[in-house]
Specification:
heterodimer; A: 115 residues; mainly beta; 4-stranded antiparallel β-sheet; 0% helix; 50% strand; B: 118 residues; 11 strands
Chain lengths: 115, 118
């Protein structure tokens, strides 16, 4: 069964600093990979996704993520964090099989942004 | 609003009562998923339904929990005889085709229903 690891439960960065949130997955083949963001009291919103092709994917709100097959990682980055980026971020994976497969989420990383 | 609609947003129940959570998927989506979220535990898959069919209920507790997605109307997650441990946020998501099929996997989430059991 696939699994997703987000090793950092809480991260604090200063506004304007760069950000990298880590995500590692365990699965035999390359799955589809996603990052979602959840603001307090809200549902999850898709930031970006990777299916195939270019390993650096761009998303909304200035985020990007890089797929590294050799490290089974899909880390999320942003060059300059804004206070409005304070939220919880979830990495998710789903195996590609041509048919239904369950989406598995990581535990989430809570981002705090300080002035 | 064409998004996933969940209600109620907040629900308070006493131990032993029943909780019913409703979810209307996005227009054109016939695949519905329920997740439970507890603090620092992430989202846990509960059940995946299509119209009138339960496809995957591998995450559903064996007792007290049930889900349906009738031909007409919203999907319903039902929790009977609630206990304090059922207190959580329950999220519904929908998709136009099943997750895992080619070039898919994106889920569209509602804002959740937060259940508090007293």
């Amino acid at each position: 069964a696939q699994s997703v690891t987000q090793p950092d439960i809480h991260i604090t960065v200063s506004e304007g600093a760069s950000l990298e949130l880590r995500c590692n997955y365990s699965y035999g083949a390359t799955p589809y990979l996603f990052w979602y963001v959840q603001s307090p009291g809200q549902g999850l919103q898709l930031l970006l996704k990777y299916f195939s092709g270019d390993t650096l994917v761009q998303g909304i709100k200035g985020f990007e993520a890089e797929f590294k097959r050799s490290q089974s990682s899909f880390n999320l980055r942003k060059p300059s964090v804004h206070w409005s980026d304070a939220a919880e971020y979830f990495c998710a994976v789903v195996p590609y099989s041509g048919g239904y497969q369950k989406v598995t989420f990581g535990i989430g990383t809570k981002l705090q942004v300080i002035p | 609003n064409a998004g996933v609609m969940q209600n109620p947003r907040h629900l308070v129940r006493r131990r032993g009562q029943e909780a019913r959570l409703r979810c209307s998927p996005m227009k054109g989506h016939s695949h519905v998923y329920w997740y439970r979220q507890l603090p620092e535990e992430g989202l846990k898959f509960m059940v995946y339904l299509q119209k009138e069919n339960i496809i995957d209920e591998s995450g559903m507790p064996k007792e007290r929990f049930s889900a349906e997605f009738p031909k007409e109307g919203p999907s319903i997650l039902r929790i009977q005889q609630v206990v304090r441990g059922d207190s959580a946020a329950y999220f519904c998501a929908s998709s136009p085709i099943a997750t895992g099929a080619q070039n898919t996997g994106e889920l569209f989430f509602g804002e959740g229903s937060r259940l508090t059991v007293l």
